[in-house]
Amino acid sequence: MADDGWASMAGRPPAGTDLDDRLRPLDRYCWELTDGLREAGRAVDQNPDAITDHLGLPVIDFETQCTLPPQYRTPNGHPAGILAAGASQLGRVITGERFGYGDPGVLLAAPGPTLSGLAVQALADAEQRRRYYERIAAGPTWTFFGLTEPRKGSAAIELETALTPDADGGFVLTGEKRYVGTAARAQIGVVFCRRAPGPWGIEAVLLDTSSPGFEAELLPMVGLRGARISRIRLAGVPVEPAQILGRQRPPSRRGLYGALHVLHRGRLGLAAMAMGIAQAAADYVRQNRPNLPGQARWRLDEVDERIAVLRRLVHRAAADVDRAVVNVHRIGAVKLRAAELGEEATMLAADLLGPASLVEHPWLEKVYRDARAFEFMEGTGGIHRLSVFQGLIKGDFLAPLSPAAATENAGA
Amino acid sequence: MSAYTTTAPIAEAATTGLWYPRRLDELHEQIAPGALVASPTGLVLASVRALPSVAGHPFARFGLAHRPASQDELSASPATATPFAAGLLVLHCQSMRRLLDLAITHLGARTSGGSDLLAKQLVQSCLADVAITLAEQTAMAEHVDAYDEEGGPAARWRSHRRLLAAGRVLAKLFGASGFLADGPGGELYAAEAVGNVYLHPGTEFLHG
């Protein structure tokens, strides 16, 4: 019977990082919480709605608590220091990788604020926050983050879903969103829409999915089925002014600002989960083929090294965010690289485990499909490459040349 | 004199001291003051200034020369080989870093179809891939402890190979000028040749 690799990973510190006294316990705690995650992952892959049978997993409660503001947390036995560490951006990527190692589909299927919570944190006024978080804290609540549209894909800034004034001082929302996680099963969520032309004409609206005119359905995806990727149709959904997030803010500090705030942070979380998949696939091979011949071992060692380097860069980018330094180019780079590594590691595992490995190793078959989702979530690799290029030209991606080298280049 | 002012005659390129060979000599001096570091295969590779007596090998076109290591150099090797190998990766990264900036300048000055080459998405994507690889390998090279384990030689070789592959992409962005012996292609070749001598972990790693 195939070994799932857990035993070899227990307690192992993540290579490529230097976690401090605050983060090491978090990493260890997350590791302990992942018990049962793969069994739940198998069930959720069979039927994504089976997540409701696994809400008792400690990992789900921990993830929710970490993403709630402190005043709404119910510690439920989680140490306060660890919860606080898990709430930082660096903590988010540490938990993301550990839980991604277990099963990212379960994480994405779980209730909680997720990306919509980041939008609320970035934009909402005090009353909007109160209503949102009280609802989340009251019991399992699924949320969604509605940005992508069928005809626009990664060009979020060109979105067309319309927020139009009605005769009573309110608005109606009309349009379509596609590839939105959890939307077909959520109770509330954030929809990005256009009230006026141009980038500052974008608004973020907090919606209840029971509103008239809101309709969502699951889309059949190849993998990562726990994400419950959905299509949303908005046929004249009524919207009160109080549902517009941060409506008192200047236009440049709401809608689009909020979307970008979420995407930058969400991309780091996705990078961490994809790294978790890559590491899990590599460990799985080591566990099941402990005596690989030279070339095969060579290829596997190379994957391990690339993950360790990437982990260092992901942690650096996350620590920067915690210092309020958001380098979109570096974030895009690690997200695209993590998505690539997840795919490469799972493909390598299928190679090294031999013919029919996808039949003989059901866990590999699942993760082999799941890994592919990370390419298109929150910006494709192509988009991030162009962002890296822009950072390179602006001098924001690589460390600058030394003065001596710059002088030499200037004369070349 | 700047590194790449002209397509200088080979003899001149070999004697004026290009960027990479100069830095290679500095690395020898840093790791083994007053001496040269031997490779695991028993060779010494340095600039033609440091080893003028063996100029004439094709390596000389890239400012490099080699000879068998002396007994003293071989004796010192266990202590110097690992830091020298780590230093070679840092040097390779530094070379790539400056050539990347040169590539951007080069591409911004050339036009095709009414726009400069830097505006082409395919070119932007290639530059981004090189930059990402460089960021990764620089992070790896900065943490030499990552190489100190048993698998260090193999890890260094793989890092070298990743830099090499990114360098080939970078050289192509210079067009035919990327193939000039005294241009970026020549500098990258020098880094490849030095890596081949000093960083190759042995065929048992590859075929074992």
TrEMBL record, chain A:
InterPro entries tied to this protein: Acyl-CoA_Oxase/DH_mid-dom (IPR006091), Acyl-CoA_Oxase/DH_mid-dom_sf (IPR046373), AcylCo_DH-like_C (IPR036250), AcylCo_DH/oxidase_C (IPR009075), AcylCoA_DH/ox_N_sf (IPR037069), AcylCoA_DH/oxidase_NM_dom_sf (IPR009100)
Record keywords: FAD, Flavoprotein, Oxidoreductase
Acyl-CoA dehydrogenase/oxidase C-terminal domain: residues covered: 254-391
Pfam families, per the entry: Acyl-CoA_dh_1, Acyl-CoA_dh_M
Cofactor: FAD
Residues of the Acyl-CoA oxidase/dehydrogenase middle domain: 145-235
Tagged with keyword tRNA processing: no
Family listed: Belongs to the acyl-CoA dehydrogenase family.
Protein name as it appears in the record: Acyl-CoA dehydrogenase
Species this protein is from: Catenulispora pinistramenti
Lineage: Bacteria, Bacillati, Actinomycetota, Actinomycetes, Catenulisporales
From TrEMBL, chain B:
Organism: Catenulispora pinistramenti
Domain of life: Bacteria
Keyword Transmembrane: no
InterPro entries reported in the protein's UniProt record: AcylCo_DH-like_C (IPR036250), AcylCo_DH/oxidase_C (IPR009075)
Protein name: Acyl-CoA dehydrogenase/oxidase C-terminal domain-containing protein
Pfam families hit by this protein: Acyl-CoA_dh_1
Domain Acyl-CoA dehydrogenase/oxidase C-terminal as annotated: residue spans: 94-189
Record key words, sorted: Flavoprotein
Residue intervals passing through the bilayer: none
